[in-house]
C-alpha cells in the first residue's frame, strides 16, 4: 500500500467496468437474455450484474475506511455530501447530456424509445430507479441506487457505533431478505425489487463491515482472507454453473445470488488491503489496469450509448448477431470507450478530484465511482 491508495483496488474497479462494457456488447450480439446463446468462451459475459456487486461492495468499503479509523464518524456530513457531489455529479450530468444527445439525434436505446422531458427530470434528480421514464442510458440505474446509499451512509455508521458492524449488516440484510421474500406477492414491491435491487444495500453494508476489519487488530488482519474469499465464492460459482444463466438471472433468484457473492467480494477486498495474494495485487496494480481504474467511472457512464451507436450504425447491418458480431464489437467499442473515457475524465473528473486535497488520503482515490 502506498500513501493515499490501496494497491489493487483501482485495477479491480477498472476490470469491473470493462466487464460491464463487454456484457452490454454481449447482450446486443447474442440477444435473448437471460438465455445464453453464445459459445462457451463468451457465455460468462452474460453475468454483467455481478460487476455491479463488486462496485457496490467496493463503494461501501472505500467510503468507510476513514470513518472506521475515526470511531465510525464522518468528519462532517455536510463536507461528505459536498465531496460526493463533486465526485459524482459533474461527470454524471455531462454523461447524461451526452446520452440524451445520442438518443435524440442518433439512436435511442433499444426498448426505451426517445427520452422525453420526464427522462431529463427523473435522471437529473437521480430517481430513475423509483420513477419510470424512457432511459437515455441503461447503465444509469445504478447511479440512482448508489446516490441513495450515500444518503444512508451516516445512518449505517451510526448503527455501527451504537450496535456494532455485524448487527448493522444483519439488520440491513434481514430487511432486504424480507423484501425479497414478500416482493413476488406484492406487485408494487416486486417492481421496486426489480428496479432498485435492494440487495445492493446489504452489499454496501457488507463493504462497510469489511472496512472495519481493515482498521481492526493485526490478528484479524492476518487471517487468510484470500482463501476465505475463494471458499465463499466457490459454492456460488458452482451453483451458477450448474443451474445456468436463466435460473441465475431470474429476478426471484438474482437477489439471493447477489447476496451470496457479497461475502466473497468483501473477503477479497480485505485480502487486497493486506497485500494478499501478492501476485493478484501486482497484476491489479500494474500500470494499465491502474490507469483503467482511474477512468472507470467515465467508462461506466459513457459506454452504453457507444455500444448502441456502434452496433446500430456499423456492426449490426453487416454482422447481425453471433460470434463475429461480438468480436468486431469488442474490437471497436472497448478501445473507443477507454480513449473517450480518459479524455472525458480529464475534463469532468480529475479537476474536481484536485479540489479535494484536504480529504484524508484513503478517501482520495478509493471511492468506487
In a few lines, what is going on in this structure?
With 369 residues, the chain is an all-alpha fold. It has 17 helices and no strands.
Please, could you describe this protein's structure?
The chain has one domain (9-364). The protein is built from 17 helices and no strands. 73% of the residues lie in helices and 0% in strands. It is globular. The two termini are 20 Å apart. Helix 1 crosses helix 15 (323-348) and helix 5 crosses helix 8 (199-214). Residues 357-369 have low confidence and may be disordered. It has helices at residues 9-29, 49-68, 77-105, 117-124, 141-163, 165-182, 187-196, 199-214, 218-221, 225-249, 251-273, 278-284, 287-294, 296-319, 323-348, 350-354, 361-364. The protein is mainly alpha-helical.
Q: Could you state the order of secondary-structure elements as H and E?
A: HHHHHHHHHHHHHHHHH
Low-confidence stretches: 357-369
Please outline the major beta sheet.
none
**C-alpha Rg (nearest Å):** 20 Å
Overall shape: it is globular
What is the overall pLDDT average?
90
Tell me the β content: under 5%
- What is the number of independent domains? 1
Oligomer: single chain
> How many helices?
17
- End-to-end CA span: 20 Å
Amino acid at each position: 500500500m502506498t500513501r493515499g491508495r490501496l494497491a489493487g483496488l483501482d485495477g479491480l474497479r477498472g476490470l469491473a467496468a470493462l466487464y460491464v462494457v463487454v456484457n452490454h456488447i454481449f447482450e446486443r450480439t447474442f440477444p435473448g437474455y437471460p438465455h445464453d446463446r453464445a459459445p462457451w468462451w463468451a457465455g460468462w459475459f452474460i453475468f454483467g450484474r455481478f460487476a455491479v456487486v463488486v462496485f457496490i461492495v467496493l463503494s461501501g468499503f472505500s467510503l468507510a475506511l476513514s470513518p472506521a479509523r475515526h470511531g465510525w464518524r464522518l468528519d462532517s456530513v455536510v463536507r461528505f455530501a459536498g465531496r460526493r457531489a463533486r465526485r459524482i455529479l459533474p461527470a454524471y450530468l455531462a454523461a447524461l447530456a451526452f446520452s440524451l444527445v445520442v438518443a435524440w439525434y442518433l439512436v435511442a436505446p433499444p426498448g426505451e424509445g426517445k427520452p422525453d422531458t420526464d427522462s431529463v427530470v427523473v435522471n437529473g434528480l437521480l430517481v430513475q430507479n423509483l420513477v419510470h421514464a424512457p432511459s437515455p442510458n441503461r447503465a444509469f440505474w445504478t447511479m440512482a441506487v448508489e446516490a441513495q446509499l450515500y444518503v444512508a451512509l451516516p445512518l449505517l455508521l451510526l448503527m455501527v457505533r451504537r450496535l456494532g458492524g455485524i448487527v448493522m449488516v444483519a439488520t440491513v440484510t434481514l430487511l432486504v431478505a424480507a423484501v425479497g421474500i414478500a416482493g413476488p406477492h406484492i406487485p408494487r414491491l416486486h417492481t421496486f425489487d426489480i428496479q432498485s435491487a435492494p440487495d445492493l444495500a446489504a452489499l454496501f453494508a457488507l463493504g462497510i463491515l469489511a472496512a472495519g476489519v481493515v482498521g481492526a487488530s493485526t490478528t484479524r488482519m492476518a487471517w487468510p482472507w484470500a482463501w476465505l474469499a475463494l471458499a465463499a465464492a466457490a459454492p456460488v460459482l458452482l451453483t451458477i454453473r450448474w443451474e445456468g444463466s436463466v435460473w441465475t438471472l431470474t429476478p426471484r433468484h438474482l437477489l439471493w445470488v447477489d447476496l451470496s457473492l457479497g461475502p466473497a467480494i468483501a473477503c477479497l477486498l480485505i485480502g487486497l488491503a493486506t497485500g494478499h495474494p501478492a501476485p493478484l495485487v501486482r497484476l491489479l496494480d500494474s500500470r494499465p489496469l491502474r490507469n483503467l481504474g482511474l477512468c472507470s467511472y467515465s467508462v461506466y457512464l459513457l459506454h452504453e450509448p457507444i455500444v448502441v451507436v456502434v452496433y446500430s450504425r456499423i456492426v449490426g447491418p453487416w454482422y447481425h448477431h453471433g460470434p463475429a458480431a461480438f468480436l468486431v464489437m469488442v474490437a471497436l467499442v472497448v478501445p473507443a470507450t477507454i480513449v473517450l473515457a480518459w479524455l472525458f475524465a480529464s475534463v469532468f473528473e480529475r479537476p474536481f478530484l484536485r479540489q479535494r486535497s484536504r480529504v484524508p488520503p484513503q478517501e482520495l482515490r478509493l471511492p468506487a465511482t
